[in-house]
Amino acid sequence: MFKCGEYSVLTSASLFGASNKNYNVASNDEFKVEVYFDERTFQVHEFNYDLHYNIALLKFESTTPMLIASFKSVEVISEAARERLLSPHSEVCRISVNDQLIAVGRYFDKPFMLMAAPGAFSLDCPPLLKTTCKISKCGTGGPLINGDGEIIGINFFAEGYTPFLPMNIVLKCLEYFEKNG
C-alpha cells in the first residue's frame, strides 16, 4: 500500500502483545519495528493494530519505488457456481473448496528468506477461513495468494492447517485505521 509518500505493510498484530492501541513509534520507545524488503531494512515510524482481528498496519518511508498490492473482497462460492461465471474480471475474488492457494511468509532471522507453502482452500467457521497450507510461525501475518496471484487473506499459524482472515475483513480494518488512527 502507498499513500502520501509512505508505504504500508499488513501483517499480524500478534507482534504487539495484549493491548489494543495505536502507536507513533517516534514518540514511543516500547517498540522498535522494522520491515525488510530487497535486502534492505526500513524503520517503521507509525503502526496501528487490532488484536481482535489480529491485524497490524506498519508505515515506513522509502526513496525507492516499491510494488504496491491491490486488494479485493473474498466471496466463497460453490464449484458449480464457479462453472457458471462468465467473466473472471470482478471487484471480488471468488474462491471454492479445494482451490489451490499459496501461503507466503518470511523467516525471522537473517537472511530473512521468503517461505511459501502450497495448499487448498477449505471451509471453517466465519470470520476465519482455512487452508491446508502448512506454515511455520514465521508465516503468521503473511499473505495468502490464489492461483491468479490475488491476495485473498492474511495467514495465521495453527498446527495442521493455516487459518486466514479474508480480505473483506482486512479492508474494513484498514478503513477503521484510516478514520481513527
Word description of this protein:
- By secondary structure, this protein is mostly beta strands.
- The chain has 2 helices and 14 strands.
- The protein folds into 2 domains: about 1-70 and about 175-180; about 75-165, Trypsin-like serine proteases (Thrombin, subunit H), CATH 2.40.10.
- Strands 1, 2, 3, 4, 5 and 6 form a 6-stranded antiparallel β-sheet that branches.
- A hairpin with a 6-residue loop joins strand 10 (about 115-120) and strand 11 (about 130).
- The mean pLDDT is about 80.
- It holds the Pfam family Trypsin_2.
- InterPro entries: Peptidase_S1_PA, Peptidase_S1_PA_chymotrypsin.
Core attributes:
181 residues; 2 helices; six-stranded antiparallel beta sheet; Thrombin, subunit H; six-stranded antiparallel barrel; mainly beta; globular; single chain; Peptidase_S1_PA_chymotrypsin; Peptidase_S1_PA
Secondary-structure blueprint:
Elements: E1 2-3, E2 6-11, E3 22-24, E4 34-37, E5 40-50, E6 55-60, E7 73-76, H1 79-84, E8 92-95, E9 100-106, E10 114-122, E11 129-131, E12 143-146, E13 151-155, E14 162-166, H2 167-180
Parallel strand pairs: 7-8
Antiparallel strand pairs: 1-2, 2-6, 3-5, 4-5, 5-6, 9-10, 9-12, 10-11, 11-14, 12-13, 13-14
